[in-house]
Design brief:
The complex is a heterotrimer of chains A (266), B (53) and C (232). By secondary structure, chain A is mainly α. Chain A is built from seven helices and two strands; from the N terminus they run H-E-E-H-H-H-H-H-H. The termini of chain A are far apart. Classes of the chains: A mainly alpha (266), B mainly alpha (53), C mainly alpha (232). Chains in contact: A-B, A-C. At the A-B interface, helix 1, helix 2, helix 3 and helix 7 of A face helix 1 and helix 2 of B.
Chain lengths: 266, 53, 232
């Protein structure tokens, strides 16, 4: 990002971006080179089983899933904050976290599906609780973003969006519960960490994944928030401009009227 | 390495989407920044414009 | 203090009844439900029959799910209609000026949609019995499920209908906002009907509990949120 143009970058965000890129390179090294594939031996038959190299997808998938939930929780808290305090800061935060969260959520679904094909032998599993809950969450927030993109008066827009976000977050436990009862045949690991043959390095790489994607998330949030703030400032600026224009117009009219009078007198 | 195609697809799609989304956000910010007066732009560096204006 | 609280609650419900009566009276005059929404719902049932190759065994197995998908689709129309009443002739401004609490307006409008949904559900039940050959095993469970699900759909629908009203793209916006939220209702009501119609061996009463919780949460949340939304 060159300094010569006006952008949402600041020295702090550039440092963050650079750290993130270095971190990503490090994570890729750990995920693909230093760690071993997940191969376990059956205790009686001695056969090899496990996720083999597909486990390397989890260093991406699991942190993204957690960040998705962090984003939507942030959105809900900011929405509640907006309804209570009515500050633009809350509204911009809610919008930013919902958008970043929806991107992460989509990636969780895609990477999960790609991981599920070799490991579960299916792209999609209807009976899986977490999978279905995440899908409904994705659809809920797609609707939220669609509402956000519909032009409307900014304050009513913010209020509507805040309500939709809060309803979505209240709805999620009910979705989760209903899918869990619906087909009690979940395929998902109870805990990915508990089932894997955890070695120190595997665990370390997973933790590194949390940190690195946390940085990616923070960088995206920062810039998205600033974009939102600019949009907010632009809307205010346009209103101010329009008012100024109207004033100028009125003055010209007054002058015209005055000229007209004097002109008529001559 | 087993499942190489799945691995490349998974990581590739994720990093590409994140990268593209990041670029789109930054570009959106630049476009907007031009139409907002300087006093309203917080956090942002705009040396180029200072020189120009 | 206590009697004032009781008075307020009574006023809340009196106002709600006024709003509900107004909406139902408009409905009785315009007959949109009977002339358009109900035929649409029956049409959907017939379309499912065509799509599933008119095999009555298949239709009977899937009748609960088809029933509730049809209810949701028809509910979208009913909700849109209910929200457009407010928008026509600026009626919502009149309501706001009347000094009624936002919660009363919400409860009243939701109650009117609820009554219409019940009428629809009765028609559709006759529809699946006649067209799909379903048999009612447990009438009590069937009726309670229909009521609990209608509460959830009517309240959530009324809130989202008000939310999308006045926006340019409301016809397309309402379904994508409302349908994902109603996912638990679809799952719960379908499973409960599975039991009531003997289509699958599940515990319908447990699902009825989930529907009741959804209805309760949606009613409270809707009454609170409606106030936050229309205040200006």
């Amino acid at each position: 990002m060159a300094d010569s143009t006006t952008s949402t970058g600041s020295p702090g965000s550039r440092l963050l971006g650079l750290t993130t890129l270095v971190g990503l390179a490090g994570l890729l090294l750990f995920a693909f080179v230093f760690t071993e594939p997940d191969v376990r031996l059956h205790p009686t038959t001695g056969e090899e089983f496990g996720q083999f190299d597909a486990v390397r997808l989890l260093y991406l998938h699991v942190p993204m899933a957690v960040l998705t939930y962090v984003a939507f929780l942030t959105c809900a808290v900011a929405s509640a904050g907006y309804l209570l305090k009515r500050g633009a800061w809350w509204d911009v935060t809610a919008h930013a976290s919902a958008e970043v969260g929806t991107v992460c959520c989509g990636l969780v679904l895609v990477t999960g599906s790609i991981w599920g094909r070799p490991v579960w032998n299916t792209w999609w599993e209807w009976g899986d609780v977490r999978l279905m809950t995440t899908l409904v969450l994705f659809l809920l927030f797609t609707g939220y973003l669609a509402l956000r993109r519909t032009p409307a008066e900014p304050q009513r827009q913010a209020r509507r969006a805040a309500i939709v976000a809060l309803v979505a977050v209240v709805d999620i436990p009910l979705v989760n519960r209903s899918v869990e009862w619906w087909e009690n045949r979940t395929l998902h690991q109870q805990s990915t960490l508990a089932e894997l043959k955890i070695e120190d390095l595997t665990l370390f790489t997973l933790m590194l994944g949390f940190v690195v994607f946390g940085l990616v998330f923070a960088w995206l949030m920062l810039h998205r928030f600033r974009v939102g703030w600019l949009e907010h400032a632009q809307a205010g600026h346009e209103v101010a401009l329009a008012i100024a224009e109207r004033h100028a117009e009125m003055e010209t009219l007054d002058v015209d009227a005055a000229i007209g009078q004097t002109g008529g007198g001559k | 390495m087993t499942h190489l195609g799945y691995l490349l697809a998974g990581w590739g799609i994720a990093l590409a989407v994140l990268g593209l989304y990041g670029c789109a956000v930054v570009r959106r910010g630049r476009r907007l920044a031009g139409s907002v007066p300087e006093g309203e732009r917080r956090w942002m560096t705009s040396r180029g414009e200072n020189q120009g204006g | 203090m206590g009697s004032r609280g009781v008075g307020q609650v009574r006023e809340l419900f009196t106002d709600a009844r006024l709003v509900a009566t107004r909406d139902l009276r408009i409905e009785a005059r315009s007959r949109v439900l009977l002339n358009q929404v109900a035929p649409f719902a029956l049409l959907v049932l017939v379309l499912f029959g065509f799509a599933l190759d008119a095999d009555q065994r298949t239709l009977r197995t899937f009748a609960p799910g088809l029933f509730w998908v049809t209810v949701l689709l028809a509910a979208l129309l009913a909700v849109q209609r209910s929200a457009s009443i407010e928008h026509a002739d600026d009626a919502h401004t009149g309501l706001r000026l009347s000094g009624m609490a936002a919660a009363s307006v919400f409860l009243g409008k939701a109650a009117a949609v609820f009554v219409q949904l019940i009428v629809l559900e009765i028609l559709l039940t006759v529809g699946i019995v006649v067209l799909y050959g379903s048999e009612v095993d447990d009438p009590a469970l069937l009726a309670l499920t229909a009521v609990a699900a209608a509460v959830g759909v009517a309240t959530t629908g009324t809130l989202y209908g008000a939310l999308a009203s006045g926006l340019g793209a409301r016809e397309t916006l309402l379904p994508i906002l409302l349908l994902p939220v109603l996912a638990p209702v679809l799952i719960g009501a379908t499973r409960s009907f599975d039991d009531a119609l003997g289509a699958a061996a599940v515990d319908g009463w447990a699902w009825l509990g989930l529907l009741a919780v959804f209805g309760l949460v949606a009613t409270v949340l809707g009454a609170l949120a409606h106030g936050a939304m229309i205040e200006d």
